[in-house]
């Protein structure tokens, strides 16, 4: 759905500089949850990763719809190389600022963490050679609800995962949003509703997406801590979940 893609691109270009303030509490919650579940996501995310991308035990992580780097801030220190992809050029700029802050002079040739503007569903934008080499782990955090073809995207993730690679989805539980007084009207005025393809995903829906993408060993959990955030001055909240699936195939 090209129109939704462009709507999202323009919206997140516009809000990139304020995103971390408005969604700061939600971002901190996601980072904390990812760090606490690192071993559940993959035992490959170790305290002392091999930093040589050519090494046989190198761990490649894809942070898709990376925004300013929430997922990468939690997990990139435990991976060999982390790639961030996002529709928004301004978000990618924020992501690469975060990469420099995290890794400094160590984030060079080849970078431990680097972001690019790219859409896996129909984008012909060229990427540096090897950018989309198979990944051990792919995470999409709080963005699947913006994607018109969620099943198609998970199938692309399956294509990009190594056999037995792990795909993680973080998103919202349907019907859990609490927008505060006047929140719905403000969201409409601000154009946020126009960026959303689906108001969250039930567990059975997520499992069906994974199975359609050839992934098994499905697991799903709802976070105890609610997501809290600000939209156009309104204090809002929702419930979040994390799901995990493994690409079926031999190592």
From TrEMBL:
One biological process term from GO is:
methylation
InterPro entries hit by this protein: SAM-dependent_MTases_sf
Q: Does the keyword Protein biosynthesis apply?
A: no
Per its UniProt record, what Pfam families does this chain match?
A: Methyltransf_23 (PF13489)
> What Gene Ontology terms describe what this protein does at the molecular function level?
methyltransferase activity
What keywords are assigned to this protein? Methyltransferase, Transferase
Gene3D superfamilies with a match to the protein in the record: Vaccinia Virus protein VP39 (3.40.50.150)
The cross-references to PANTHER family, in alphabetical order and at most eight, read: METHYLTRANSFERASE (PTHR43591), S-ADENOSYL-L-METHIONINE-DEPENDENT METHYLTRANSFERASE (PTHR43591:SF108)
What name does UniProt use for this protein? S-adenosyl-L-methionine-dependent methyltransferase
Q: Which organism is it from?
A: Aspergillus lucknowensis
């Amino acid at each position: 759905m090209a129109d939704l893609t462009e709507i999202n691109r323009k919206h997140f270009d516009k809000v990139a500089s304020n995103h971390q303030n408005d969604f700061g509490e939600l971002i901190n919650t996601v980072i904390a949850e990812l760090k606490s579940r690192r071993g559940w996501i993959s035992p490959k995310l170790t305290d002392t990763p091999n930093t040589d991308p050519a090494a046989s035990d190198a761990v490649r992580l894809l942070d898709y719809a990376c925004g300013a780097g929430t997922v990468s801030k939690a997990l990139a220190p435990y991976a060999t190389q982390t790639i961030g992809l996002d529709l928004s050029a301004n978000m990618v700029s924020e992501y690469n600022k975060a990469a420099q802050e995290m890794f400094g002079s160590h984030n060079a040739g080849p970078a431990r963490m680097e972001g690019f503007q790219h859409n896996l569903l129909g984008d012909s934008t060229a990427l540096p050679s090897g950018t989309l080499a198979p990944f051990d782990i792919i995470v999409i955090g709080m963005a699947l609800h913006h994607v018109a073809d969620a099943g198609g995207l998970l199938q692309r993730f399956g294509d990009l995962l190594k056999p037995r690679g792990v795909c993680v989805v973080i998103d919202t539980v349907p019907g859990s949003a609490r927008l505060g007084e006047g929140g719905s009207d403000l969201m409409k005025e601000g154009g946020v509703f126009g960026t959303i393809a689906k108001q969250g995903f039930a567990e059975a829906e997520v499992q069906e997406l994974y199975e359609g993408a050839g992934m098994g060993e499905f697991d799903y959990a709802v976070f105890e801590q609610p997501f809290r955030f600000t939209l156009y001055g309104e204090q809002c909240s929702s419930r979040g979940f994390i799901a995990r699936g493994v690409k079926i195939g031999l190592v």
